[in-house]
Design goal:
Four copies of one chain form a homotetramer. Chain A is about 40% helix and about 15% strand. Chain A is of the alpha+beta class. Chain A has a seven-stranded antiparallel sheet with strand order 4-3-2-1-5-7-6, sandwiched between helices. Chain A is globular, with a radius of gyration of 18 Å.
Chain lengths: ~240, ~240, ~240, ~240
């Protein structure tokens, strides 16, 4: 049970970072983590203030969405998270917010183009925006359909190469190898979305940076030839 | 008298939340609450700093606007609040601010269209903007006329379905079942107004989200089939 | 000497409010006050951090600009302040900042039109913008010429009716009956400038609110029939 | 060794000022300083949080980029800094950030025109933007090529007259006579970039202020006839 307890603490911490990074108003955001060896997901309870959260409030569900631990209702976005974890085996954490700059792009129905090296350092191409859901999808299993349209939008690349998506008319989802990395990508996405907005206002519909720059910046930070940061510490 | 004292404390707290949520500059905002069983309204005194307010500064007026308790002048917007309480029997609290994003839409004379789920979660349709007041209305009982043009703009739906309005060339009023909920809706309105602005700058005059999405998000949080948040606690 | 000491303390406090209200970056702003009975002006020293200021740093000059007290150089804008005090006898305090929203309008060379009641509550008409200074004026007694172009722009109305001006390509000056009121008007101007900007982005070149609204809001707060705020306290 | 220790402490302090002035998100910025008498540069380690930095984390490299002191990898931008120190002998400190307003201009590929006196007080003309790097330059010694395109852009004027540049599609570099002055110029650049953006939105593609105003404001603060601030203190 200790691994699950560790994950609950990581998910608690990750949720608490959302107001710290000014990514959420009121309770508009949630972070989850997955423990694949046990087939369990841990997620924030629905509609509870970040300040009031304790580790025991974290809700544990299995990958079919049945509640296994916790007295609280899980986030209403739980089915979306589950679709992504089931489809993409490399995901360890997912973050959903209504952070204002990323949400403005999502509401506009526009992908965020890579307009500079800040973007390229973290996202290896545009942050895509899904199509609108159909009325049938909205009236059906809405949160599950939201997950499915994300999967449809990403196609089948490595989801960690561009660890973010905008859901049309809704807002961003980001992810990573663990819950903290999912929040880290949410912070970066918000900053990138803000700068892309102002760049387009100055130079409307400017094209993306060239592929060579995307390659250079992305591989400075990722993969075997990365040279940004410090080497992993030996233990 | 205890119910009235409770309301005075709730109105004090609600007013103090205005600078906390960065909704006001200087003293530009006020919150009131109503105690219908006694026919009394409690409201902030006019032009007093939020930090300096005490519960005894709260002004009690009857629903005709006669001061019943308190040494202070009530907010100059008192007649507007009273028109709304008299017309809409479900209102328990009203909040008026000059919060910058909502006020910018009000000054532009534009309703805030529902451009995403953040809006739809809380406002079941556009946040309307009143017509301009006529010179006669401005020169007459101006604050009362402001209330009347709000009533005219809303027509006769449930005012809690879209608990906000923009007064043309002035700013927002929001309301709720109690003073805290009125402030809560002011926080949400400001965030929604900010994101709608940036969305329209990216995608000018984008149309509203479809009715199916409005329905889905509004009824996730409201009504008998709501499934957002936690069930009410048994006592 | 006690009146002068009081003024030095008021000017110190007023200068310290500039960073508190986020009106200044680094040392880009100054406040002065005048003691007409002694023909003295007190002003911030040039280029000193607000946090480091003490009452003894305040510089006293006579109305011709000769230093009478203090070891420091007075603000380089001193000649501008002096022109305004000499021309307008009702001014008791002047504030100059490079606050970003007001400065953006000044750089654009545009008056801030009255687009709503927030403006009308405090400024009885547009906040004017001066013409550009000529090369001769710039190369001559530049700071004095800045004061003269403000006087030229205002014409001869009551300067307290619209207690603010934008200097073309430079930034705002505000004033009041004392140094604190000058800062108060700088706070309001910045908020009004921000909202006017966003209003024009939503509704380009929207016209001013009608005269009847300007009258109503201005006289709610000013003159014998004012009814905003609390009555002056008896002493 | 004491001069080098002093520089390490100055570089530490300068790096810590970056989050204080809200110029950086996460670890997106670095400051360096140079000790020309010893042929050494001190720079922030790569990818380390500002809060966690200690003086012993500072990395010392010689002007060819060989690490002389410190266990950490130096900032990945080290080769850019070195090109600038080698080319411009008056530079004592360099600062690189992804501050959002300056970066938005850099992403737009636009020089920041001098639109007001805030700009002219500190930058004696437009803040230039480099050309895009070619694919060959990007695929080659990328960080060194970044330094070279800055040198190419500046030509051979005094680099302290306009102590800032925008790298196309990347972000700003600023510099000064020491590390603190480099950060000081980064603060100013960000504020100037923000105001220039809003000025152009109000008045698209407004031309620069006239040369006479640039001269007047720049020489108020710089050179033998400067009259802003306090005289240097005798010791």
């Amino acid at each position: 049970m200790s691994e699950l307890q560790d994950l609950k603490e990581a998910v608690l911490l990750a949720n608490r970072l959302l107001p710290h990074h000014r990514l959420v108003t009121l309770t508009w955001g949630n972070v989850s983590g997955v423990l694949r060896s046990q087939g369990m997901m841990v997620i924030k309870p629905s509609g509870v203030d970040y300040d009031a959260l304790t580790v025991d409030d974290m809700v544990v569900v299995d990958l079919d969405g049945h509640r296994v631990e916790g007295d609280r209702n899980p986030s209403s976005d739980t089915p979306t998270h589950l679709v992504l974890y089931r489809h993409f085996s490399t995901l360890g954490g997912i973050c959903h917010t209504h952070s204002p700059w990323a949400t403005s792009w999502a509401q506009a129905g526009l992908a965020i183009p890579p307009l500079g090296t800040t973007h390229a350092d973290h996202f290896y191409g545009a942050v895509p925006c899904t199509r609108r859901l159909s009325p049938d999808e909205i009236q059906g299993a809405y949160e599950r359909e939201t997950g499915k349209v994300i999967v449809e939008t990403l196609g089948n690349p490595d989801p960690l190469a561009v660890p973010a998506v905008l859901v049309h008319g809704h807002g961003p989802f980001t992810w990573g190898r663990d819950p903290l990395e999912a929040v880290h990508h949410a912070v970066i996405l918000e900053e990138v979305a803000k700068m892309a907005y102002h760049t387009w206002m100055l130079n409307p519909h400017l094209a993306s940076v060239p592929r060579s720059l995307l390659d250079r910046h992305y591989y400075r930070k990722h993969g075997p030839n990365a040279y940004y940061g410090q080497p992993p510490e030996a233990s």
